[in-house]
Amino acid sequence: MDFEIKTKELENNYLKDRKGKKEFRHTTNKNFKLLPFVTNDSKIRGEKNSVKKDLTAFQGIASECYRMIHNQEKPDKKLLYKEEIIDKVLTKSQVKAEDKPQIETILNKVAFDTQGNLFIFDERIFSYINFQKPTGILENISLFFYTIFFDEKLKSKASKKTSQKSVSNIYYQLILSSLPEVKSNKNNHKGFDIYQNFVPEITEMFRQDLAFMLEDKSFFIAYFPLLIKYYYFNYLKQLTLSLNHFFDDFNQSIFFTLEWETLSKSRISHQNGWSLFESKARNIFSFVNFFELISYIEYKGESFFKGNFQQIKVKIEALDSAEQTELTQKLEEITQFYQQKMEAHMDKPFRPGSSWADFEQTYQPRYSLADAPVHHHLHKLWTAIDYQFIHSERDSPYSRYQAWITEFCKLNFVRNRGRLGQSLSLDQHTLLFITKLCLGKHPKIRLKNLWVEYNKRGLFFDPSSQKEIVKLFEKINLLEKKSDSGDAQYVKTIQ
């Protein structure tokens, strides 16, 4: 018997003692980490202790990643108050009393924003930037991004490149020398396997783009938070879409519009844009619970269901018929555990009119039980989990969990279009940033190749949006025509 269920761990995590009785509870991120979110959405939908500013600016998350790259502790915020820093600068530079007001004014202008926070004028400042509203969910998102997108090779390169010290501005030199020493934290060395990477092609693209940015210090300083934010969004988008395809081939594109263009109902960017993505994100909590549940099935001592659906498909196809039969039996046992224990040990498992009997009658198989029994049982288990959330009083956490995806998108990449509703939209600043990444070290590339590079980074534009982009490039002198007919068009790099 090569397959077995970790029964003890399964029961310990799903059946909790409460007042002398067993209570069934859905559990996530115990045995399988897919996403860092929680079922409390008050910090992203509400205003009290809101993390909206953090999830818009992304400086705190980028800085937390920077500290993990360098194995650094977070400095004491009391040592980073503007007054504390300026006082140290004045003391260290031995400024005369009569000159202090003038120097203070200059330091306030060149090094601090209106809220008293440090400008990121040097990459080392990332070590000192905290979240605007420090909270566990932001720590978790930072760790999620770091463990998904970085590896030891990239970490080493980033650490070396961002440790090179060179700043010419005398005031910046004074500020840097007056900041508290950042302590090394050997325990801050996080592994790269904490969260499961389901979209490796996106992480590879990120590593390529970050490596390019590290060659240009000013570019890195100015755009590191935006790079983190865009790839965080891109990963969530592609993850959500791919999960909903299960074992089927995945080739679905979500289209963007541009903030400044007009939109019509017939446009492909409206039909295959935000509304499509948002609809796919609604069931993300069911997938998180699904992967947690099947992770308790082991094959020769290791969890069998690691990786995305396509990776699992390869593993299933590598099994012989006897092993597939055995795995099917284990999936049936897991399904029985879930359905029976939930119904027996959960208060009000369903709303009136809903039941497992109703589920069996309404379930529509996606895969043939005869031809693909493992695929069939996996899909049926996921559907059972989704059915339970939709047809019970637990539809509330179901909705709150996905808010960490949809509300984040609305903060950054969604625009209201009046009677047409909302659309995924990109502003000029972000478009030009990604364009520079697409060109990389090339002084120019053909326009048709730029569309391909956009696609590699998850950006798809319909013909109308492409025309608007060309107009923009012409306006800011980035477009170069090699013939009078305009057949050969090149896009120049952004200086």
Automatic annotation (TrEMBL):
It comes from the Bacteria. InterPro entries: Dnd_assoc_1. This is DNA phosphorothioation-dependent restriction protein DptG. It comes from Microscilla marina ATCC 23134.
